[in-house]
Design a protein that fits this description.
This protein has 697 residues and is of the alpha+beta class. The protein is 50% helix and 12% strand. It is flat.
Length: 697
């Protein structure tokens, strides 16, 4: 079956945008095909620094024919109704059929539409996709009205081995968008420097083969594999080990079309710089891979991936990269030497010149709040001394005023540790300075050292409470201050270190000039949402978290998760599942009767009105269970609380089997409804069962 091949050749596409671009191109084109009634077997998208390509296999040569019948008005309907029907179907009266039905004689229209040839439909699908492509950032160039991530140089569009004709429908408009010479070609170009001549292609297999011959590897996965294999080969030859870096590997594969892997050297004079300075200068600024020796120490070598081999087997390319790195590291050496002429503590006053947020003060203000909060939090962390936590919090942000962090912002915290060690600060304080930004994502290691945990919590809690206080909360997909990440960091710090930290108490320790009022419940609800997201992958049910949070005032995450875990196990048992069903039944009956009677059936039942043995036994069981649950919860014995609830199962079942709730005797009916209400009240000591799937809201 015919194949569609589309290539958009342009100036260099930023590596960070390439992955999303392939997904968008595939989605937009295939959605257009489906809407047009064109089936296909497979669609694959590819990207290199200079081209975005899509191949769609198994397309039909034409759309399927359409035959549709529409029933119109009765034959004796008013003239205007008949005219309206004819207008809607685009037919005349003599083109319609008259048919007798059970409801009388009606006009019927049979509409037949021949499917159009696919080659004539594709330009109308591809043109708007190209013109309105959703790049995160785009630009205009020359006299063109269209926008693209970078100037477009050519659009190759081939269907069934023939170039598609965009000119007939979009000629003038296409010229205004990107220029008259870019549309509907059957030619592309190879590598910009190694094979720049035009290449004529007829289909995807021909396209990929000729690009490879023209020094372009189309598949990004193939480029990644080639880079990794080449780097590991050079490392092995030098008896070194390549430092794993999947993120850099993906980025570099988006910078080259024909990867040439080379090894360069670092001047030994720079090897006494902190490893993080060396690796950051190489990775972030130069896109080099680091290497380690057989003792896992950073080696004075680097791997660079070029887009051309250069002359003399790459020696010229390596020499150029070594010169650039030497200049970069010379700057780093200067910053390192200058920064150590001042102590970290002497830099703290300088934080007053850095604005944290216009409404929340300077970074110095934040550091002061962090001191008080870190000392408070330290009281809940075994092994954390309040005085040392205060010291670490005071110094945590001081490296923001150093020249090294000014040049390499990625090293904030890390450089603070080095400078703290040089100043003679205790090792625990120095490590806490380095750790306090962590964790910065779901896969980032979580601090475990007591002081690091205390300062990390202080930093993140202060940020969250502050932005809540000024009503700068995340909305939809927008989270400019990374508050969701901060909340997740707090959750991980607490859970992974098993800290019994009351969050509400920690919130109260954060004070601002304008005060912090009425944020506790809303901020705690935000934590509940983040906790559900965090635990979703671990199979923890979100409704159970809701059910426990709904009790109100629960701000101890370890205790909450303990209750959730036991609650989940209880509901998976026969007793728990049946009791939840009984809860739902009781709640439904009470809700319906309360609405009908316009009253509430809460409060205690009257013992003298208990007649049936089943209702007497239920009353006794409810009292025993309520007492047992209260006692167990007071000691955080959640398993015991569930066991106390399990004792209700048989009495509740017997009550529903043998007792009529809606009896004609008003007093008995009211008393029995109060018993049913007591079932919910007793169970809701453990969790709000109405929020559990199967419960009644």
């Amino acid at each position: 079956m015919p194949e569609l091949l589309l290539e958009l050749l342009s100036e260099e596409i930023p590596a960070r945008m390439q992955g999303r671009a392939t997904e968008d191109l595939k989605r937009l084109v295939t959605d257009g095909l489906k809407e047009a009634g064109l089936s296909f077997e497979e669609a694959r998208a590819f990207v290199t620094p200079r081209r975005l390509a899509l191949v769609v296999d198994g397309l039909p040569e034409k759309q399927p024919d359409i035959r549709e019948e529409r029933r119109g008005p009765r034959v004796d309907a008013p003239e205007k109704a008949i005219e309206g029907f004819l207008k809607s179907v685009g037919l005349t009266l003599d083109q319609c059929e008259r048919r007798a039905t059970e409801k009388g004689e009606f006009y019927f229209a049979v509409i037949e539409e021949k499917g159009r040839e696919t080659k004539d439909i594709l330009p109308a699908i591809l043109f708007p996709t190209i013109v309105k492509f959703p790049w995160p950032k785009s630009m205009r160039w020359a006299l063109c009205q269209g926008r693209w991530v970078r100037p477009i140089q050519g659009i190759l569009a081939i269907f069934d081995e023939r170039s598609l004709d965009f000119t007939a429908a979009f000629g003038a408009l296409g010229a205004l968008q990107f220029g008259v010479d870019v549309w509907s070609k059957d030619t592309t170009a190879g590598h910009r420097f190694l094979a720049p001549k035009p290449i004529q292609v007829k289909d995807f297999a021909d396209y990929k083969k000729k690009l490879k011959a023209a020094k372009v590897i189309l598949d990004s996965a193939e480029r990644r594999a080639a880079i990794l294999a080449g780097a590991e080969r050079l490392a092995k030859r030098a008896k070194l080990t390549l430092k794993a870096d999947q993120g850099l590997l993906a980025e570099v594969s988006g910078l080259v079309e024909w990867p040439v892997v080379l090894m360069g050297s670092i001047d030994k004079d720079f090897m006494d710089l902190p490893d993080e300075v060396l690796t950051t200068a190489m990775r972030t600024h130069q896109k080099y891979f680091s290497l380690t020796d057989n003792k896992s120490r950073l080696a004075p070598r680097f791997i660079v991936v070029a887009n051309t081999p250069g002359r003399e087997g790459g020696k010229e390319v390596v020499a150029g990269n070594e010169r650039v790195l030497r200049a970069r590291l010379s700057d780093a050496r200067y910053f390192w030497d200058q920064d150590r002429k001042r102590t970290l503590v002497s830099r703290v006053p300088g934080l007053a010149e850095l604005v944290f947020h216009a409404k929340l003060g300077s970074v110095a203000d934040k550091a002061k709040r962090m001191q008080a909060l870190a000392a408070h939090v330290a009281g809940y962390i075994p092994g954390a001394e309040a005085a040392l936590a205060e010291r670490a919090a005071l110094l945590a942000k001081a490296d923001l005023t150093t020249e090294m962090v000014g040049e390499f912002p990625e090293l904030q915290g890390v450089m603070g540790r080095y400078y703290a060690v040089a100043d003679g600060e205790t090792p625990e304080v120095a490590e806490a300075i380095a750790d306090h930004y962590a964790p910065q994502g779901p896969s980032d290691p979580c601090p475990t050292a007591p002081l690091g945990v205390a300062v990390a919590l202080a930093d993140k809690i202060d940020t969250l409470v502050g932005f809540w206080a000024i009503d700068e909360k995340p909305t939809g997909s927008k989270d400019p201050f990374a508050l969701r990440r901060a909340a997740l960091g707090i959750i991980r710090l607490i859970i992974e270190n098993k800290l019994r930290l009351p969050l509400l108490g920690a919130f109260a320790k954060v004070s601002f000039q304008g005060g912090v009022d009425n944020i506790d419940a809303d901020l705690l609800a935000f934590f509940a949402d983040r906790l559900k997201v965090h635990l979703r992958e671990k199979g923890v049910r979100h409704d159970l978290i809701d059910a426990v949070f709904a009790l109100g005032g629960e701000d101890d995450l370890v205790r909450l998760l303990g209750r959730v875990e036991v609650l989940g196990a209880f509901l998976e048992s026969d007793d728990g599942a049946n009791l939840l069903t009984a809860y739902r039944r009781a709640a439904n009956i009470v809700r319906i009767e309360e609405k009908k009677d316009d009253t509430r059936y809460g409060g205690a039942h009257r013992a003298e009105l208990l007649e049936a043995s089943e209702e007497k036994e239920l009353a006794e069981s409810l009292e025993a269970s309520a007492s047992g649950v209260r006692h167990a919860l007071s000691g955080e014995d959640f398993t015991g609380a569930m066991a106390a609830l399990a004792g209700l199962r048989r009495p509740v079942d017997d009550f529903f089997d043998r007792v009529t709730v809606n009896t004609d005797e008003a007093n008995l009916r009211e008393n029995r409804l109060r018993l049913l209400g007591a079932i919910g009240a007793t169970m809701n000591q453990v969790a709000d069962f109405s929020r559990i799937e199967g419960g009644e809201r």
